[in-house]
Design brief:
- It is a single chain.
- With 162 residues, the protein is an alpha+beta fold.
- The protein has one domain.
- The protein is built from two helices and eight strands.
- An eight-stranded antiparallel beta sheet has the order 1-2-3-6-5-4-7-8, with no helix packed on it.
- A hairpin with a 2-residue loop joins strand 7 and strand 8.
- The longest helix is centred in the first third of the chain and has 17 residues, at 4-20.
- The chain is globular, with a radius of gyration of 25 Å.
Length: 162
């Protein structure tokens, strides 16, 4: 009986060690991927970025105040190159105002976009004439998959009244 006690104690200690696990484990790859952003703060056109899916696409919001026009460019997973999509419209929702304003942006393909796809979408609205930092949401449905992403514009305009 005395010989069995140390062996039983050793087995109990091993069981506790294995069941509590190691505290130095790395996070699963899927969680780590969601927290790592391997792209710039702004898009290739200098606009505010949103994310679609698990960083599958990066829509980029740009505004031309003089034309009262918003342009959304669809960029790849690294927010570096155009990623033409097969949709006719993208929905832009401006959330910095109450109630939010919805603007439908129509496909305006770049010369390099394949036929039937677009990486650029444009639309106009009077709110876009204001020189403020816009906040909003960009939505589209590619095939059967809906995408939505939020953005916050940080521009370098001097917004003081003249």
């Amino acid at each position: 009986m005395r010989r069995m006690f140390p062996a039983a104690l050793t087995m109990l200690a091993l069981t506790l060690l294995i069941s509590t696990g190691c505290t130095n484990r790395k996070a699963p790859a899927k969680i780590a991927k969601a927290t790592v952003h391997d792209h710039p703060e702004t898009g290739p056109h200098g606009g505010a970025l949103a994310e679609w899916g698990e960083e599958e696409f990066h829509p980029e919001f740009k505004v031309d105040h003089a034309k009262k026009e918003a342009t959304v460019y669809i960029n790849d997973d690294k927010a570096a190159k155009p990623a033409p999509i097969e949709v006719e419209v993208v929905e832009l929702i401006l959330t910095h105002v109450k109630p939010p304003i919805t603007i439908v942006l129509k496909a305006d393909p770049e010369a390099t976009d394949p036929k039937g796809k677009s990486s650029r979408f444009r639309g106009t609205h009077d709110e876009l004439a204001k020189e403020i930092e816009f906040k909003g949401e960009i939505n589209a449905k590619i095939g059967t998959k809906p995408y939505t992403g939020t953005f916050v514009e940080k521009d370098d305009h001097d917004h003081k009244k003249k």
